[in-house]
């Protein structure tokens, strides 16, 4: 059933760490050729690509700040050129960029959060279209968040709203691109123990999150991987588009 992965050409943004790195390693192990995208974490990204190659797979790294359209366009085109085409784009790069309440939300914070979490997703997807059309179809998976549905925790209003945008445009893109044989879906992680929370969440915040999770613990990046593999595998999910899979230990049951 997973034979289809041999030689599949994949670009994963934000694959240097956390969820993106875990997905990259698994898809690499399945036989995909992986463009491991990073921005500031060069050494970790190289380690991800090396781990894939050491396991018998094929991977290389590509750098870009996906907040900027020109860099994102170049990232997708360069990755597709080196991969010899593109079959799957995973728009995973993102960040809260700090907890900011309404009193402190200024233009700069608004632009930074929206550019990283929203502009990147739209522009990378747009840049992928000609490559997918050339291949006769394609697959896009966005990383949204539980915050898109629950509004996010303290100071996460801009980030949560940006992810709400990602969830909504997932559904519209699915409708618009179905005729091009391109599926578009998203994964919505809950509270996952990655560097993201090292940066943004206090112990008190994480304890409160834990208490609200029926499974009683945070998730791991590896536990998010199955949802991406399912959505990325045509033989498993070929009739699934415009959907959002929640991976959250029961923290939210929409
Ligand atoms: P992470 O470990 O902090 O990884 C974030 C990734 O995004 C890194 O690879 C980082 O690349 C990349 N990135 C950040 N800013 C970038 C920029 N300006 N340009 C390009 N790449 C950039 O966090 P994670 O938890 O794995 O997060 C992955 C995705 O899941 C994000 O979209 C996040 O919003 C979402 N999410 C996370 C959680 C959670 O609980 N952890 C929950 C819901 C959704 P460099 O390190 O190379 O700069």
Could you please describe the fold and organization of this structure?
The chain is an alpha/beta fold. The protein is built from 10 helices and 7 strands. The protein has a 7-stranded parallel beta sheet, sandwiched between helices. Bound molecules: NADP nicotinamide-adenine-dinucleotide phosphate.
Shape: globular
Number of separate domains: 1
* Name of the CATH first level: Alpha Beta
CA distance, first residue to last residue? 30 Å
Quaternary state of this entry equals single chain
**Percent of sequence in beta strands:** 5-15%
CATH 2nd-level architecture:
3-Layer(aba) Sandwich
Give the helices and strands as they follow along the chain: EHEHEHEHEHHEHHHHE
The average pLDDT score comes to: 97
Bound molecules: NADP nicotinamide-adenine-dinucleotide phosphate
CATH topology: Rossmann fold
Q: Count the beta strands.
A: 7
- Classify the helix fraction into a percent range: 40-55%
Low-confidence stretches: none
Radius of gyration of CA atoms, rounded to a whole number: 17 Å
Secondary structure tally, helices: 10
Largest sheet: 7 strands, parallel
CATH homologous superfamily title? NAD(P)-binding Rossmann-like Domain
Structural classification: alpha/beta
Keywords:
single chain; seven-stranded parallel β-sheet; binds NADP nicotinamide-adenine-dinucleotide phosphate; oxidoreductase; KR_dom; 3-oxoacyl-[acyl-carrier-protein] reductase (NADPH) activity
What topology emerges from the helices and strands here?
Layout: E1 9-12, H1 18-30, E2 33-38, H2 42-54, E3 58-63, H3 69-83, E4 88-91, H4 107-135, E5 138-143, H5 147-150, H6 157-177, E6 182-189, H7 195-200, H8 203-211, H9 221-232, H10 234-237, E7 244-247
Parallel strand pairs: 1-2, 1-4, 2-3, 4-5, 5-6, 6-7
Helix pairs in contact: 1-2, 1-9, 3-4, 4-6
This protein binds NADP nicotinamide-adenine-dinucleotide phosphate (NAP).
């Amino acid at each position: 059933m997973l034979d289809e992965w041999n030689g599949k050409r994949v670009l994963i943004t934000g694959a240097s760490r956390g969820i993106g790195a875990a997905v990259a390693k698994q898809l690499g192990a399945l036989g995909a050729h992986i463009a491991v995208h990073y921005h500031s974490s060069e050494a970790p990204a190289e380690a991800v690509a090396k781990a894939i190659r050491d396991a018998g797979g094929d991977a290389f790294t590509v750098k870009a700040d996906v907040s900027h359209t020109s860099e994102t366009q170049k990232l997708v085109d360069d990755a597709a050129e080196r991969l010899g085409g593109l079959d799957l784009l995973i728009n995973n790069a993102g960040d809260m960029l700090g907890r900011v309440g309404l009193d402190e939300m200024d233009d700069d914070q608004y632009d930074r959060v929206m550019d990283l979490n929203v502009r990147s997703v739209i522009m990378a997807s747009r840049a992928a279209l000609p490559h997918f059309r050339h291949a006769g179809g394609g697959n896009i998976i966005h990383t949204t968040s539980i915050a898109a549905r629950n509004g996010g925790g303290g100071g996460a209003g801009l980030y949560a709203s940006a992810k709400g945008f990602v969830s909504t445009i997932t559904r519209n893109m699915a409708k618009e691109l179905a005729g091009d044989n391109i599926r578009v879906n998203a994964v919505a992680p809950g509270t996952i123990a990655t560097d993201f929370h090292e940066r943004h969440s206090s112990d008190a915040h994480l304890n409160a999150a834990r208490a609200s999770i029926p499974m009683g613990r945070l998730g791991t990046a590896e536990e998010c991987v199955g949802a991406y593999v399912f959505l990325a595998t045509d033989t498993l999910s070929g009739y699934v588009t415009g959907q959002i899979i929640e991976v959250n230990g029961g923290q939210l049951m929409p």
